[in-house]
Structures are given as C-alpha cells and as structure tokens.
Structures
1.
Amino acid sequence: MNEGVNVVALVVFCLFFVAVTVMGFLAAKWRKAANENSLDEWGLGGRSFGTWITWFLLGGDLYTAYTFVAVPAAIYAGGAAGFFAVPYTILVYPLIFTFLPRLWSVSHRHGYVTTSDFVRGRYGSKGLSLAVAVTGILATMPYIALQLVGIQAVLDVMGVGGGENTHWFVKDLPLLIAFGVLAAYTYSSGLRAPALIAFVKDTLIYLVIAVAIIYIPIKLGGFDAIFEAASGKFETINETTGKPTGALVPAEPGQWTYATLALGSALALFMYPHSITATLSSKSREVIRRNTTILPLYSLMLGLLALLGFMAIAAGIKVANGQLAIPQLFENMFPSWFAGVAFAAIGIGALVPAAIMSIAAANLFTRNIYKDFLKPDATPEQETKVSKIVSLLVKVGALVFVLTMDKTVAINFQLLGGIWILQTFPALVGGLFTRWFHRWALLAGWAVGMVYGTYQAYTVSSPTQAHFGGSAKEMPLIGEIGYIGFSAIVLNLIVTVVLTFVLRAVKAPDGVDETSPSDYTADAGDPGVDPEVPPLTAATH
Amino acid sequence: MSETSGAGRGTVTPTRVVIALCLLAPFVAMLWVGSYAKVEPTFIGIPFFYWYQMAWVLISTALTMVAYVLWRRDQRARAASRNSSTQDGGASS
C-alpha cells in the first residue's frame, strides 16, 4: 500500500480534520444551558436535541467508520453474506418505534442517564444494574478500538501509515494526533461536540456515496459488468476450504445464518450504550418516533455502500487486508482531491461514534459503578468530573488496544461484544413492558447467555484462526448454522422465564419498583417531566 | 378500578392492529430469506437479492410512517376523550 504519499488527498484530509477540530472545541458554547456542571449537560447535551440534530447524531453514531469499511469489505471477500447489514438496519426501526419512546419517558421522569439506571430503578437491584453496566462497557471498548482501525485503513492508503520497518512512533503518530484531538474536545464539550461534527460527517458521507454510486459504475461499464466480474471471482475455489470463495445470493444453508444475524444484530443495536445516549439526548418522545421514519435514509446509503464491495472486485483491486479494499477503490477511481474528501468522510466518520461511545461508557461507569458502589453521595459536579476523566481513560484504553495487539483481536472482541450486549435485552426491553420477570432470574439468564455465547464463539474456527473465527455456529435443536448471539438470547430467555416461575412460586423478595405505569408514556411538558430537564428555551438559541 | 378500565379503554382497536401489522411486516419479509435469494430478475444489472432488499428499506419506511401517523391520531383521540370525560363527571380519576 505504501507507494508514496498522496499529497493532494492528504492536504484535503487535513483541512477537513482541522475544521472539525475547531468545531469540536466551539461546540461547548453551542446551545449552552445554565447549569454546565451536570451530567445531563456534558453527557446528554442538556437533553435538548430536536428532530434534525437527533437524526444526524444517531446516524453519525450508528453508521460508523468501521461499518463503512467493514460492510463493503465483507461483500468484497464473500459476497451476499455480508449484505445482512441491510435487513438488519431495516428491522431496527420498527423495534425502536415500539420500545424507545417508553425508555425516553421513564428516563426523563426519573432522571436516568443510562440503561443501568433504569434497570436499577425498575428492579431495585444494584447487582442486575451492575451486570448491565459492565456488559455495556465491555461491549463498547472494542467498538471504539475499531473506529481507530477505520482511521488506520485510510491513513495506510494515503501512504502515511508507514511501512513494516518504520519506527512504531512515526508509524502511529498520525493516529495519536487524531485521537489526542478527539479526546481533548470530547473532554471539554461533551456530547455537543459529536452532535455538531456529525453534520459535517454525514454531509461528506452522503456526498461521497452519491458520487461513487454514479461515477464508479460508469467507469467500470455498468452494473452488469460489475456483477459479472464478481460472479466470476466468487466461483473460484478456495484452496484451503475446497469451496467457492463466495456467492451472489446466499445458498440454502446460509439463509438461516443470514436471517439470525440480521435479527440478532437488530435486537442488539439499541442495547449499546452509545445508541441510548444519543436517544436520551432528544428533547421529546415525538422526536424519537419521527426519527424512525427518517433514519432509514442511512440504511439506503449503507446498501449502496455495500455495492462498492462488488465494484472493488470489478475494478481489480487486490488487497491482502480486505479492509483496505474500499479506501483503495477510492484512491484508484477518484481524482486525488476527491479521494481526499472521501478519506476525510471516513476519518471524521470514526471520530463521531468514538466520542459518543466514550461518553456513553463513561456515563455507565460514573452512574452505575462510581455512584452506586464507591461514592453514593457524589454531587452532580463530581459525577461530571468523573465522567470526563473516564471518557479519557476509555479512549486511551482503546488506543493501547489497537497499538499493542493484532487488529484481529479488536475484531474478535467486537464480535463478542455484540453477543454480550444482546444478553441485556430481557432486562431492559422486558422491563419496559412488564415487571413480571424476577430480578434474580434475569441475572441468571444473563450469566448463562454470556457464558454460552462466549464459549460458542471460542469454538468457531476459520481457515486463518483457531478460535473466534466467526459469529455463526450450529444452533441447538434447529440444527442449522445460525448467529451465536441469537442462540444465546433464546437460552437466556428460557432460563429467565423458568427461574421466574420458580422464584415467584417460592416468593423470593421481588425488589422495589420506583416507577409507575404512567412514567412510561409521559411526554415533555407533562407533570414531573419538565422540572428535571433544563428549560427548553435554551434550544431556541 | 377506574384506572384499569380507563387506560384499557378498548386496548385492541382496529387502528392498533394496523399499526402492529405495519411494524411486523418488515420482519416477515426480511427474515424469509428464501423468498428473495435469487439473481433474476435483475434491475439495471443488479441481482434481485440486492435491489429487493433495498426496495424494502423504502417499503418499511413507508409502513413506519403510516404507523406513526395512525399512532398520533390514536393518541390525540384518546387524549380528547379523556379530557371530555373529566369535564363531564370529573370522577374518572
């Protein structure tokens, strides 16, 4: 990849990077509210964001740089199987339409900042809340690390990644600078920084995709030629497995995998702390429901982006590391200056989710570990301070992770993270609709799901890895190959239901529920909602 | 007593059934992979498998919008009837 530095692309990239850095720091003054030192301000942007800001923020948050690199890379490597990301993001919106407004309402009435806050309030169980918090932090860390992998891919293709023999410090310097800057403005501006930068990120991404999806097929002779080339490549037999390298449509045995991956991932997405943080920062439950009707625009973009994987094949891109396929396609196809714009889109695309993820993980630590277990009488100022520091530590941790360990370790952990975070679904979504599940049963179900999922993932081998070789395995009873997270959540639910019957029969102590039915449908302006949010007049500035 | 009957005032209404169907349809369509795992018919050279799923992004968006509009109308109707019933008797709380 290191054929010399692409100067024009690098200059354009740096210009955009400097611009968003300035925006990141100025964001602290944007829509400023009276009480700066509360966690609601730093960690949730004052809970004041309207429809459009929420749309950009959630879009910038969920469709990460890693997604942009990894989804087409999966298509490039194996064809149809990688396209599951599209049905996955289709299924997400009916789901959030159903349960997120309830979470928003109960969180506003009780001042919850994290999902664990809700779980503790609903079940009166610090243990269950701790389990949810730890799962959230564990699942988020490798996700942040993967954003760095996304930036690295772009830097590599621009020729500033350094070769094999470059001193490690020189090689990683650009990444260190990028992350230093990110850490500094997240610290000073909180959630307002990624919210503002998301505008730039998404505008760039939409622009690049629109150009790529028209310009590249014209250069390659149309979609007919593109899919013909892809079909030819997928028919070649892989020497190690003795099977074709890919397929244009999933064959019969792969369809269960496809469907369970789509469903399992859709259920997991809004268990991630960063999705919840972006959701709770909106100013009313209307904003969330309205967003489910406009967020799918990102899914359409993701589908088009996935097709770039086929274009990379047709354009004859040959890379050892599949993740470089799309950046390399941009570099080969676009004039240098526009390649620079495309790289900036991916680079900035990494900064927005990384900032939100680190804020979300920090909020979890502060609210559900620090305040619940270490310092119950912490003031809002102390909470905010701890959150700011933890957001730094989380990022440093991710950086060390990427710099010291092999990239595949981060990918393995992210795969595990998806399985893990899904195991919090019964406690959270179950709790939004019913109080029937017993807190101890939920904890047991969670533990069983975590252990089962981790073990199953450990036993999957691939041609290149002995363990954690993939996320699909034969499902018990059904006998088809399916997503491990899906089998684990089914097992988790069975354990939870059976144990709830048992615990209810023996009248085990149920815990105090501090919420009431009307909390789940309350909207901004209702009694008990307004006093806890800062005055909405701040939003008019 | 009045709390349960008030909140549950016809919990399953035709409108709510339509909302549920709108939200459920994408799951049936997308999880039934066998129904769309084929190459033909292609659209401007793109195999059916790909353009069909992208078309479903638009279809599910339309369905969610219908659900949203119906849900809002449902909420407003409920709020209106709740207000009028409190004005009538004031004993419903």
2.
Amino acid sequence: MILGLNRRDTRFLIIVILLTLFTPFLMQPFSEGSALAQFNGGYPDLMAKVAIFGIFAMGFNILFGLTGYLSFGHAAFLGVGSYSAVWMFKLLTLNVFPALIFAVIISGLFALIIGYISLQRSGIYFSILTLAMAEMSYRLAYSVLTPITNGETGLQIRATDPRIFDSATSSGSPNLFGLELSSSFKWEVLNHVFTFNVGFYFCAFVAIIMFYLTLRIFRSPFGLILRAVKSNQTRLNYTGHNTRPYTLAAFVISGLYAGLAGGLLALMDPLAGAERMVWTASGEVVIMTILGGAGTLLGPVLGAGAIKYLEIIFAKINENVLHGWFGFLPDGLEDFIVFILSRFTGEGWHLTLGLMFMGIIIFLPGGLVQGGQRIAAKFRRKAPNDDDDSEHHPKSTSHVAE
Amino acid sequence: MDAIFLQILNGLDKGSAYALIALGLTLIFGTLGVVNFAHGALFMIGAFCAVTLQKLFGLSYQVIDETQTDFLGKPLKVDVPYLESWLGPEFSAALMDWSVPLAILFSIPIMVVVGFVMERGLIKHFYNRPHADQILVTFGLAIVLQEIVKYFYGANPIQTGAPEMFKGALDFGVLIGFEPNKVIYPVWRLVYFLFSAVVIGGVFAFLRFTTFGMVVRAGMADRETVGLLGINIDKRFTIMFGLAAAVTGMAGVMYTPILAPNYHMGMDFLVLSFVVVVVGGMGSLPGAVLAGFLLGILQSFASMNEVKAILPGIDQIVIYLVAIIILLTRPRGLMGKRGVMEE
Amino acid sequence: MSNFKLTRRGMMQTGGAAGLVLATPTLLTAGSHSGYTNAPTGSTVKIGFNVPQTGPYSEEGLDELRAQELAVEHLNGIGDGGMLNTFSSKALDGTGILGKKVEFVTGDTQTKSDAARASAKSMIEKDQVVMINGGSSSGVAIAVQGLCQEAGIIFMAGLTHSNDTTGKDRKANGFRHFFNGYMSGAALAPILGANLGTDRRAYHLTSDYTWGWTQSESMIASTEAMGWTTAENVLTPVGAGDFSSYIAQVLGSGADTLILNHYGGDMINSLTQSVQFGLRDKVVNGKNFEIVVPLYSELMAAGAGENIKGVYGSMNWNWQLQDAGTAAFVKSFGEKYGRPPSNSAHTCYVQTLLYADAVTRGGSFNPCAVGEALEDFEFDGMGNGPTLYRGADHQCFKDVLVMKGAENPTNAYDTLEIVEVTPRAQVEYPSNHPMFGGDEASVGSCNPGA
C-alpha cells in the first residue's frame, strides 16, 4: 500500500505518471520534415491543453460518471476559474499560485451555489437547470458584465495593471517564482525536435495530482455512495442515506476541478474569454467524457486528448498539404484523392469529428477505453473484462417510455 | 398601450415559432425519451428544403452573351432557367415567388423519409442505451448533416423570400381601433402564426382522435403491455419519428423568410427547443406549446426599452431565468408527467 | 461527506513530491539563439493564415484563404504577379522573401478567441511561423494580436473593424490595414447628410459586444456632429436571430432612420426583418424612412438579397474600383477562382504583400526590423490610393468607400455600388483620440521574442 493505493492502482498510477512525463516524446513520433510530421502534436500548447482538459473531464466524470447527474453547464466553472486567475494576475502578481488558489476557491463557491439550486431536481430537469445557469453566465459575461470580463475581447493582462506584489522589473508573463511558464528547452536528436516546456510540466504535475485524487475518490466509500446514487437513488434513500449532501459534494468537487482547469488555461495563456462558458463548451466536456468512457478513470483524459488533437491537427491539413502527400500519384487520381480527403480535413474537420462521435459510440459503447481494452485483450488473449477498471463501465439502463 | 399590445402580438408570434419547433422535439424527446441533439439539424434540413426547391426552380443553363462582359472583361455567361424556357417567364416567376409555400409540400415526404431513416438506421439501436450515448450519437449526426449541407450550400445565409403578396407589413392596429402606424406587423409573421396554430392543432387532433394516436399514447404509457397485446408498437414509434421530423421540417420551411437559412441555424435553436420542452414538462405536448408561448411573450416584454432601462441585459437571459424559476417552483415543469426522464 | 477520506500521510507525501518538482525546472533554458522567435533557418520561410473555416463566418474565411494563397504564389513568382506590378515599393521580385521560398500553414479560428489562440499557438510553436495573418472578427484579432506580441512574431490583422484593435488594444507587433468604426462614421456622415438631409432622427440597434459599441459610438458622434439626433441606442443580443421585438419598437419612437450596427448573420436578419416590418415604405416626420448599415461586406450583401437595395454602408475596398492595383488583383484572383475577391480577401492579400515588402526593405525577419519598416510607411498601388501605415497606432490611413445597395444588380457580385470614395483626409484622426484609448494608449515596444 503506497499512498493509500493497492498494488494494482499503484501500478496504474505509475503508468499514468510515466505516460505524462514522456508526453513530449509520445506526441512527437514523426521526424521533422517527413510527410507525417503534420501529425506531430508534441508542442507545448497542445500538450498542456490535453492535460488541462484532462483535468476538466476527470472532474466532470466524478459527477457524471459516478452519480449519473448530467450537468450541461460545467463550462461556467471553467470560465469563472479563468477570470479569477487573470484577475489575480492583474491585481496581485504574475506568480501562478495566488491565481490558481483564487480560481479554485471562486469556482468552488460558484459551483456550491449552482449545485445547490440545480440539485433540487434530478434527471433532465437538473440538466436544464445547469444549462440555463451556465448560459446566463455566458450571456452576461459577454455583454453586461464587460467591466469585469472585458466582454468579447476577453480579459487580458496589461502593462498598466497594478500587480501590487510584483516588482516593476518582473517579467510580463505568468511564472513560478520567477521561472516563466513559457520557457522551453528544445532537444534535437535523430531529426526529431522534442520540446520540454515549463508550463506543460507544471500542468502535467497538477494533472497527476488530480488523477491521484480522482483515483482515491473512486476507491473511497464516498465514491461507492456516489455509484449507488447512479444505480438506484430511491433505494439509497430508503436505506437511510440522504443523498443530497453526497451529490452536492460531487458537484462542488467537479466544479473545483473545472475551476482549476480554467485557472491553468489562464496560466498557459493569460486571456479569459466568455466563449469558454457557452453551452457548446459545456457540451464539449460531456462529449470528451463519453467519448473516452464515462465512469472510467483514464477515459475522460483520453477523450479530452482526442478532441483537442483533432481540433488543431486536422484543421491544419489543407489541400496544399494533401497535394504534398499524394504528389507521387498520377494527376487525375491525385486530384480525386485530395478532393475526397479534403472533405474531412481543413475546413471539413467537423465532419471527421461528427463521424468519430458516431463511430465510437456505435461500435464502442464504452468509449475509447473499451477500444483499448479490446486491443489489449486481443494481444493477451484474455477476456476484456479482466482489465483495470472494467467494473465502472456505464451500465445501460432502459428508459424508453418508463 | 399600443406598445404593449405590439409586444403581446410579437410574443405570440415568437411563441408560435418556439412552440412549433418544440413540438417535434417533444414527440421524440418528451415521449419516446430519446435525447435527440439532431433535432436542430432536422429544423435546418427543413429550411434547406425551401432553399433546394428555390434552387431547383432556378436551375439554369448558360448562354454566352457577346454584347455584355463579366468582371474580367470576358463575354458574359447569362443564366437562363430551364423552367423559364419550358414554361414561359410568367409562370416560372410565379413558381419562384411561391417557392416557400410550395416547399412545404416538397418537404413533407423528404422529412418523413429522413425521420424514418434516422429512426430505423440509428436511433432504434439507442432506445436502451444511456441518455449520454444518445446525446453523443445524435450530436455527431447533427454535425455530419450540417457539414453535408455546408458542402452543397456554403456557410453564408441564403435569402428565401416569402411570396410577394405576403411581403411587407399590415397595419394591424387599425383593424382593432388603434391609430394608424402604431401597431404594424409583417404579414408573413401573421401567416406563420396561423400556420403553427393549424399544425399544432392537427398534431393534437391526430394523437387524440385517431386509433393510431391512441395506440401511440398507450405505447408511451406502457410500451411492454401494448407490445404484449400484439400491436407492433415499434412500427408506430417509427411513424411518430417521421411525423416529428415532418413537423420540425415544416417549421423550418416556414421560418426561412424570417431568418435567412444557413447550415448552422439548427444549433442556434437546439438549446432553446430543449429549454421549451423541459419547461413545458417532459411527456406533455400541451406543456411544450404553453411553454413556447409563455417564453415568447416574456422575451418580447424583456426586449422593451423601458424594461431594459431598469434591468440592462434582461433580454439576454430572460428565457433561462424564467426556466430556472419555473423548474424550481414546479418540479416537473408546467405540465410534466411523473417519472419521465427523472432518473 | 463523513466517509470521504484522504489520509493525512498521503497528502504530506504528495506535498513533498510537489516541492521536488518545483525545485528542478531551473535546469530548463530557452533554446533559441537567433535573437528573435522562429528565425527561419533553411531555404524557406513559413507564415500562418489563421481564418475562420468553420462556423458562420467560414465563407469569409475561405475567401481570405484564397487571397492568401494567391499572395504566396505571387511572392514566389508564380502567376501574373497581381498587385506586385502596381505596388509603389519595388523591393519584392517574385523570388520569395529575402531569397527564401514562402510556405504557409493554415488554421481554423472558429471565430472564437480561445480556438484562434490555440490555432495560432500551434503555428508558432509547431510550425515556427514568423507572421500570422487573417481573422474575421475583432475579438479574435485582438486576442491573436496579444498572443503574437507575447510570442514575438508579427500579426497582420485581417478583417477587424473595432476601434479597439488599433485603439486601446494596439500592440507593437500588430498591424491593421482594414479600416475601423470611426472611419465608417466619418465617411458615411457627409454622404448621409447630403442624400438624406441633416435633420434626421436616428434609432440605433447595436450588437451587444465591443465591436457593436465602438461602431455605434462612432456613428452617433459623426451623425450628431452634422445635426442628426439620436432617438435611442438599443443593445441587442449577439446571434439573436429574430430581432422582431426590437424592430417593432422603432416606429413608435418617432425615428425616421434606423442604423443597424450589426455584422454578418445578425445584419442579414435584422435588415431583412426591418424590411418585412415595412419600415422602408413609411414616411415619418415628412421624410422617407431609411436604413443604414455602417459596415458592409459582399457576403452580407449576398445574404441579404434584395433587401439591401438603396441601403447605405461603408467598405474598406471593392472590386469595382477602377485603379490599376484593383484591376491587377481582380484579374489574377478572378482567373484563378472564377469570382471577384471580397474586401476581406483584399485586406489579407495586401497585408501579406506588405509584410513581405517590409521584411525585404528591413532586411530581416526580426519583428522589430519589420515593424520599423512598416511604421510610417507610405505606399500606393494597392487599390486604396496613397496609404499611410501610421507608426503611432499601426493603423492604415487610406480612402474609405461609401456603398449603396444596387437598384438593378446584373449578377451575384455587383449587389453593391460605390457611391463615393471618401478621401483619406476626411477619415483621419489623431492617434490619441478618446475613442482610441486617449493619451494612455501606446503600442509599447516591439517584442522579438526569444
């Protein structure tokens, strides 16, 4: 038992830590200049985004994956976290800790209020309450609250900000006691360029801590109660448990994760915009979680990675790039293939996204994690349900015309 | 007084649009229990039925006119619509003019087929899956449908006007005793209001007074028992899906003169239609209609300058604010049924 | 809650680990030694085109992309050279920039600040671009401009019309060729006065976000200066779709002119619906009711269809202009893509050429050298007449077009007609104008990055 985990979980945690530490290698598999270098994603911003949205989705999963309460307004906490962090940068210091702490506190309070109100209802009524509150936050932040949020343009740090704890000579970007998050170390080897960025490793470190906390919550008696809420809340009430405090706690915890993620977004890029709170942003975290595998530990992080990667990398494959790839083919065939593929890349990347959602949910009801398990099972010639975490798959429930 | 009357009229008009859009959703979502994120896409496809018909009427061949030049100084290629050369300019112009109302006839079979295919091909397999899976698969479908429409029609809105005789505005106030020029309202919006009243009434009557409707209502209440009675409820649910798609599509067709359709319009209505259905209460058709009108009227009032002066930005959030208040005071919305999607 | 246990021991161990990681990063150093971010090393140089490819503005983004590709071709000596032949500076010779072949990467802004910055970051960090061009919204432009300033590369703004881009949010590494809200107001007011009279009462519907506010502020100031009064300035939600509840109140206010400070889909809908309300058929205060749309674009005009007939507005540039630069650009764009370019395509094309020219004249890709070459640069032959890139705020000053919806358009592309080319002198303003951040606003110092 290390850190309160059993052997299997410890092994799992170590694997996750290793994967995280070696992300700059794993996401940069292709050598520079090769045709496939387009698919490299090992640059600081994308790696950090995966870690940050991984945290966001992990937190969302504590609420949705365990209790089954589907919140459609979690992006509001992300946005509040970002705004709080940027305000700390403006008022106090560009050091990351006051910003992160404040982001978590404020979004936690926000989550407490919204959670308390929304949890008066369950099912779809709960979802619409969270949606309505997040959408109100977004609309107000975009227009009436512009003095606080800077509206559409987004809240930014400026040279004229007071920053009372910073000396006049200090750097102009978020830092860890003087070490700028944007500084990187590049390692060029074997025609590969690997970038080790302070900001990414900071986010990765926070992500690992949050993963560990999530693991502990999943394995705790508290987690068990949350699962019981999902499988049958009424029965739980009859056994004398008042479920409301548990679901509220889960809601606030997931709000804290979202606030932390929002704070980290602001650290990596000190700008907070209202669009972070719009309903499609809330929908995105729902989709990340389901895509990866709701109720599993690693699934939400995988889902976050898949979507963020697709959004940037596929959108960048334009027809020029495609012509570069297929230039060796005869002209007519080349044009035909480029025409077909360009429907799915560049301006057509949404089509790939939509098809991916449908394909995964049709063929892999348990999300990407289930896909991974199937592959693993093939290799090990074992039944897939012998793997980590299989017990947390979403149980299908029937609900038609109930 | 006339200002208030005008906003009530506007609210009823807005409300009729909300109610009509929500009606199709509540058939699928409120009664079949499928969280259909592709509902907005159905609305959009309906609108594009009108665009398509207009394009079909305008299908042209090119004639090179040596006397004119295009922007590059080359001889101008003049488009001559096939219809014009077949049917003569007058009749083809009349067809073009009436393309939106005609598109209703055009859209019904298309939407029914779209609905059938969607239900049989995809949704059927998701009745027994968690709501989250339904959301993901229908959201994916919505994106795919949008992208297909975008490929053919581009992202820019396409103007599809109402027939000439419904263009312009009617001095509605004069008819009921106000001074002239006080209560003026666009004719097409009044048409839309009447149209949605007819459609809503038709759907109610259909479910109320036909055997089919009776079976479907029974199926909603207890699908298994109805199945045991030897009635093929699945088939009827498919038909329901087709009906819902047709209603939504018609709402889209009729909305095109008010809102120039673009491929993205469905997403803009998606959240609103879910809010209307849930505020109305899950499983209740009258609830959805009532909620549509209520939210429409409240939004109109919130847009009044006098109200905005007191509460800046209230018009941005009034729908959500009202939704929250209603859901907190009435546990299942206005007329919701116990146990529908509350788990 | 009582069952939720995290052992104190576990927490302490985690804390220890935290301390360890925090102590190590001093090992990391910046890796570049060239003196500025993404200095090109080989025989090529990369620039980034960041435009909306999905969402409501994607059509505009695609047109920008077409123009940008064309600009790269011309820089690399492919095709007929377009405006390189008419550009007053002759530094560019069709052999790329400083002898390096120009390559480009593209990205999708989605018209969202976050997505635009993520896309821009991938261009900077992954593709090592030295310049980013594009955008179709002021919020996005300001966000990406801020990012480029921090990263130490040049941002050549695309379509952004808010006063703030070169006003209170101006940056040393950012440059805007497009005109702005103030210029729209200054150019439109005299034409409106001459054609509609100087004693009108205007009702404003304004998109409730920063661009809308600066636009209505500029329009109110310039129309009131010539004698109009303002009945009301009503803020409408962005993307409202149905504006009927706002339009319904216009007639009751006694206004005889409606000014729609809307853009894109909002403008198409609010204009269409205003026409449906019969506003343009009314006579108020003895005058025909008129509608004005301060900022026009070709795509909006196409979307609004016949509703724009006779409606005044302004534009940065239009393909129907008669000068040599415009003719050259329209010819090469039209022959490649079979359609005339839009004004957002024009601004992106010109910005790309201006950047390349400034690099060549400055002799370096260093953003500070480029900035210096662009500041207070006077040029001609790019379609807008003699133009100045003012050093104090990095705003271009040039003629502004006043447009009107054509009564009898002959094809899909001449739905707008040019009413007047407002001379540059009439739209100029001091760089410390109160609408542009006042005395406080400053571009700051250029940032070469690494």
